[in-house]
Amino acid sequence: MQAGRLRHRLAIRQPTISRNEVGEEITTWATLATVWGRIEALRGEEQLAAKQLTAEIVARATLRYRADVTTDMRIQYDSSEYDIDAVLADPLKTMLTLTLTAPAP
């Protein structure tokens, strides 16, 4: 992939679990790395569940290969956070394609 196509700054975020003073687990998100990549929206959907309208955005991100990206992580682009649903490496392990979901604003 041409470098010019990787024009978006993406933050790869990982969960960190700590405990508060009562002993409850608290999950916070820390930035593992900030990388150049490409993100594109694939579709948006709205669903009616339990008498509530929910919306979801499905997107795809492409970035240079990293062995440490997992589905437990998130991608942040601008002010949007996306859960990583799948991590797909190309056969030569030069690029990663991530399928992402995020609640619609």
Description:
With 105 residues, the chain is an all-beta fold. It has one domain: Beta Barrel (Thrombin, subunit H). 0% of the residues lie in helices and 70% in strands. The protein has no helices and six strands. The chain has a six-stranded antiparallel β-barrel with strand order 1-2-3-6-5-4. The two termini are 31 Å apart.
- Proportion in β-strands: over 45%
Taken in chain order, the helices and strands follow as EEEEEE
Name the structural class. Answer: mainly beta
Coarse shape = globular
Low-confidence stretches: none
The CATH architecture: Beta Barrel
Number of domains: 1
Query: Helical stretch count?
Result: 0
Summarize model confidence as the mean pLDDT: 86
Distance between the termini: 31 Å
CATH class identity: Mainly Beta
Helix content: under 10%
CATH level-four homologous superfamily name: Bacteriophage SPP1 head-tail adaptor protein
Radius of gyration: 16 Å
The side-by-side strand order for the widest beta sheet comes to: 1-2-3-6-5-4
Largest sheet: 6 strands, antiparallel, barrel
